[in-house]
Write a structure and sequence with these properties.
Four copies of one chain form a homotetramer. Helix content of chain A is 77%, strand content 0%. With 191 residues, chain A is an all-alpha fold. Chain A has one domain. In chain A, α1 packs parallel to α4 and α8 runs antiparallel to α9.
Chain lengths: 191, 191, 191, 191
């Protein structure tokens, strides 16, 4: 299988996930300011997930750009990642509708954590396939972002039960860390 | 990142937004003419949003056609635009279901305003990247459409609370202004 | 604008419309045979619309294949067609859920009629742009299918109020007429 | 019609089906562990269907890769397959929400069975069109997977009414059989 097709499929899935998420935002029944207020946590979780999915789309693209040949391993590692990303609208809706209650906020973090792990597995699978001189390995380098994110997610999951604001702050922090596209890979492609 | 991929992703998102909007039109329970009447404002807002999204798809394409290299700035300015467009089904449904009540009508205008601003920011980001001889800048020219639209949106938001028909008329007016594809850019591409 | 991009956008919209239609089929609450029975008319209308959209996708492709240059006229004629196709899930759901009641069945036919007219307008716009030696005009020939379909739709709309079975039969008849891909255009492309 | 376009349309439909399936997972109202428990069967059926659709996407691609010319036969055989795949979100939701009750579990198997038959018909149509030296025929070989799957599905349908766990085990078994990409075709493409 060519890389192009896996890329196209992944892009389509991420584009759909990022877009259908809006359907989890239920249209309010009232038409006054009171009706809008409970939408605030919904809107906040929507925005957060939108940014996360955009980051995944972007970094995923950069990573796949270094793949030449797609075998069964990479294919299924990629589908595994898409699986966790496909759950984002569900947990986003659950967390938003319940105004960031502890358990939904923790489950939201759990899905993000699993997506991060899936991303890491995909990265590892590609590096292994590329062999000792893996250009992806060189590009990724020490990968501090990839290492620190799961720790922050795990902390957020636990701290959701202390105060959800801490978890929320951690989710925003991870998004900020990643919002800068991975310049290491970018610069390597540039060469 | 190549322009092609950002184009493909944007096209996919806009195609999905324009299409899932129909899911916000709830199937009526009755089967007589009485059941159809409350659908009229829903249908009107659906049609309006459909046209708006088609205009965005079209002009967005013309604009991206002049981009050579996609950096982080353009990438995120583009995602920012897609974010506001992704909210169109939500506000369309809210405005339609509530028969163009003042607040939903104003919020509809707010999302259109934010999308217009996001479009403007994207345009500016591209022009800046292209430098002093920016072909997009020359093509856009004085950009009276881009300048007048936010003013009309802002007016519509305020006037929603006077009479929603005025706001509705303004939304239709902006759509009519834009429905003609941007011939300036088109002619420039032609050369 | 190149033909390719309008094709890609149209394909995406039709693919989404044909797929989200399933979301209008509400999951039944019961788990016995009784729960399945009311699904029969829903399933029938779903199948019918699926076939219609597949026909549109196919013929639309054949037609666009003969377009070289996309101007504003063709662009908006195409969006007009997509608009009516985008309403198919809505009327399919309404007709199915109400077990083919007269009014929903007639409205279903109305949307099909408008889509057929939109298709005809698109065809005419392309032929006009191609000028006197229009290859599409030669390929389409006398276009008996295009002429007879609107008449059958209009009859079905009226006859929905006599007996919905007649309307249903006419909808199936039109689908059968079109299910054979347009060999005239196909053979012309082959040359 | 070129193979590329049918491939693109099929990919889009499968990507949408696999992604909108999440919308059938209704966001729970509660926010405690009790609210999560009834989601387990929903999540299980979601995961199973996700894997099935990924398998179809993958094998479908491998098969289409051997097609040169797409005639009406292949076109409609392909749409027939997409039709059954499009029903997967519906039966997944029905089975999951009703905690794998016998009838929904059997109907789930029925849709899988019909998809398998549709896949087989598509394969046969391609082989027939390719003639006596069909490369697909050689690649498929004795096709034990294709032969054993319908038998397992049919057994699962019947055994749903004995115990749904048996049906569930059979569905998982078929998924495991197919999860390995079809190496026969792959190796043949490699040559």
């Amino acid at each position: 299988m060519g890389r192009t097709r896996m890329e196209a499929f992944s892009d389509a899935v991420i584009a759909i996930v990022i877009t259908i998420m809006v359907l989890e935002m239920k249209v309010p029944h009232g038409t006054d300011m009171e009706a809008l207020r409970p939408l605030l946590p919904v809107f906040l979780s929507y925005t957060l997930s939108f940014i996360y999915l955009a980051i995944y789309w972007n970094n995923h693209h950069h990573m796949l750009h270094m793949v030449d040949r797609v075998g069964g391993g990479i294919l299924w590692a990629n589908i595994h990642l898409l699986f966790w990303l496909s759950l984002v609208p569900f947990v986003t809706g659950w967390m938003g509708e319940n105004h960031w209650a502890p358990l939904p906020t923790a489950v939201y973090g759990f899905v993000l954590l699993m997506a991060a792990i899936a991303y890491f597995i995909l990265q590892l699978t590609i590096i292994r396939q590329q062999g000792p001189d893996s250009p992806l390995k060189k590009a990724v380098g020490n990968d501090w972002k990839g290492n620190v994110s799961p720790i922050l997610y795990a902390s957020a999951i636990a701290l959701s039960f202390v105060h959800v604001a801490i978890a929320g702050a951690l989710y925003i922090l991870v998004a900020l860390i990643w919002i800068v596209p991975d310049r290491r890979i970018e610069s390597r492609i540039g060469r």
